[in-house]
Design brief:
CATH architecture: Beta Barrel
Helix content: 10-25%
Shape: globular
CATH class: Mainly Beta
Mean pLDDT: 81
Number of strands: 10
Number of domains: 1
CATH superfamily: Catalase core domain
Order of helices and strands: HHHEEEEHHHEEEHEEEH
Oligomer: single chain
């Protein structure tokens, strides 16, 4: 993302953080609206994906987080969450996965280090036929709490049809009207992107319930926390810097993340993705994500996977977070477009 450092709005009102907030949910941000979610606003899965892909979509690629790399490995559970969830994955043992690292944006050729957000998605398939899809991003919270507000955020950022430029007053008005963005803003002010997928911390953003054998529910968020930090030195002009760094690291062994779960208490609102939970909340490390290999996303194992975070196994349930619950239909719409383009052979030339 490019910004104008001489723009007083950039310096004084923080429009840059608002722009970043528009892509913070990574795999989520591109797909927030199911048909009918916004009622009178007339926003459907189709119209939102139209907005996300822009005037020059890349056929055959995801409409958000178009650039990425497939990974695979296994999750080694230590059994610490078994008493809170009946999910097979939390029993002590190993579960293989297919995953994907990606950067924000709809351009599959974008320079890695220019993207303000990185993401990690995982897909587990179990012997009992159940699946779990995780879509995690570097920000721990969203900038807004509802699909309606997210739509208004995008509209505030949209360029004027006549001038081709953003309206500074619209952006200032939106920021002033949304004090719930303060937790996101605080994170953004302290965050410095690394030069490695392996060195970032990735968050669920939305909360989910762990459900035990008796049906008891515990609201949680989780984070993939890197176990080490050692970044390959690459020039900022290297377009595939994050991918090259990952490939280099994997030659020396697995890339690892601890899977850390934060437990909500009675004062936390699990349905509001814009509010951070206090650091003193109970946490448990459920195990380790071990990434052992990578491959290009085109024709790779991850390319055909729809990383919809509402695909959950028994023992994990969604909260009533309206943004979380508005995503599936538009995920499906983006997937439908990609599948059609690939079937018709319209992807030629879309990737270098």
């Amino acid at each position: 993302m490019h910004t104008n450092n001489n723009d007083p709005l950039d310096r004084n009102t923080g429009w840059r953080y608002l722009f970043i907030a528009a892509v913070i949910t990574g795999l989520a941000v591109g797909f927030l609206y199911a048909a009918g979610v916004l009622g009178g606003k007339g926003v459907t899965a189709q119209t939102f994906v139209n907005l996300q892909e822009g005037k020059t979509p890349s056929p055959g690629f995801r409409r958000a987080h178009a650039k990425g790399i497939c990974v695979s490995g296994e999750f080694e559970s230590n059994g610490a969450l078994a008493e809170y969830s009946s999910a097979e994955i939390f029993q002590a043992g190993s579960s293989p996965f297919i995953g994907r690292f990606s950067i924000a944006g709809n351009n599959p050729l974008a320079p890695d280090l220019k993207a303000p957000v990185r993401s990690l998605a995982l897909s587990f398939s179990f012997d009992n036929g159940q699946q779990w899809r995780l879509a995690m991003n570097t920000p721990p919270v969203m900038a807004v709490s509802t699909p309606e507000d997210f739509f208004e955020q995008l509209m505030a950022l949209s360029p004027d049809a006549k001038t081709g430029k953003r309206d500074p007053q619209k952006i200032k008005d939106f920021i002033a009207a949304h004090p719930e963005s303060k937790d996101f803003n605080a994170w953004r002010a302290s965050y410095t992107p690394t030069n490695s997928f392996a060195d970032e911390q990735y968050h669920s953003i939305n909360a989910f319930y762990l459900v035990d054998e008796q049906g008891n529910q515990q609201a949680v968020r989780w984070a993939a926390v890197p176990t080490s930090a050692s970044t390959l030195e690459l020039g900022s002009n290297t377009a595939d810097a994050l991918q090259l760094d990952l490939i280099s690291k994997l030659k020396d062994g697995p890339v690892r993340f601890d899977m850390v779960f934060s437990f909500a208490d009675a004062s936390d609102d699990e349905n509001n993705p814009a509010i951070a939970w206090p650091n003193e909340r109970k946490t448990l490390t459920a195990g380790t994500i071990n990434i052992t290999s990578s491959e290009a996303q085109t024709n790779g194992a991850c390319d055909g996977i729809r990383f919809d975070p509402l695909i959950l196994p028994q023992g994990i349930a969604p909260t009533n977070d309206p943004i979380l619950r508005a995503r599936s239909a538009a995920y499906a719409e983006s997937y439908r477009r990609r599948a059609r383009e690939q079937f018709l052979g319209e992807t030629k030339g879309a990737e270098k």
